[in-house]
Amino acid sequence: MNPTTSKTPIAPTAEGDGEKAADRLEKAAIEAEGERAVGDGSGLDADADRDSDLDDFEDGLEDDDSDRAPSGLAAAAAAVVATGLGVVGLTGAWTGRVVAERETLLGQMKTASGGSVARQISEIYGDAWHSTALVNGIFALLALLVGVFALVRPAFGAPAKDPQPGWVRAVATAGIALGVLGVLISVGMYFDLIVALPAASAAAG
């Protein structure tokens, strides 16, 4: 009876230990699989973070490009300059007076030893007159070119963020008009079409 009673508890104990060991192995496998799943999820999160950072960088570049877009300041400045040059082309500049005085002095030097009345008129008065008209015509032509640039500037290069203001177009148009008028007057004065030089016969009489 003793041998039977001593053998019966041993078998269930060994069998129970085996079941516990199997349970522990199964739990360890489940935990390892869970850790791998968590690791994979963190990797996906890291990739998502990198993608978001790349998108933010590209957005920053686009913002920089938009900031570099022309603001229309050049066209506005050109319109104002064109108007100023047009006024100078009509009223005259100090450079024109300097050139005229130089031509007058040269004419006096050329005719100091004598000369006909017609030659004196041409050398002293005519050359100074034509030089003034030439300088004024150059200013008027510059006004015309700068005004045209101010009007057509938005059609070239990168598009501006805002449309060209109306006052810029108006001022540029005024500069062009003054430039055209100045060029016409300068050409007429240079070729004696508006007012002719005094004739030698009238000076003699």
Q: Kindly estimate the percentage of residues that lie in beta strands according to DSSP.
A: under 5%
End-to-end Cα distance, whole Å, is 173 Å
Mean pLDDT across all amino acids: 77
The quaternary state of the protein chains shown equals single chain
Q: Specify the biggest β-sheet.
A: none
Helical coverage, percent range: over 70%
Query: What is the strand tally?
Result: 0
Keywords:
205 residues; mainly alpha; disordered N terminus
Structure description:
The protein has 205 residues and is an all-alpha fold. 81% of the residues lie in helices and 0% in strands. It has seven helices and no strands. Helix 5 packs antiparallel against helix 6. It starts with a helix and ends with a helix.
Summarize the structure.
The chain is mostly helical. The chain has helices at 2-7, 10-67, 73-91, 94-110, 117-152, 166-190, 200-204.
Topology:
Layout: H1 2-7, H2 10-67, H3 73-91, H4 94-110, H5 117-152, H6 166-190, H7 200-204
Helix pairs in contact: 3-5, 3-6, 4-5, 5-6
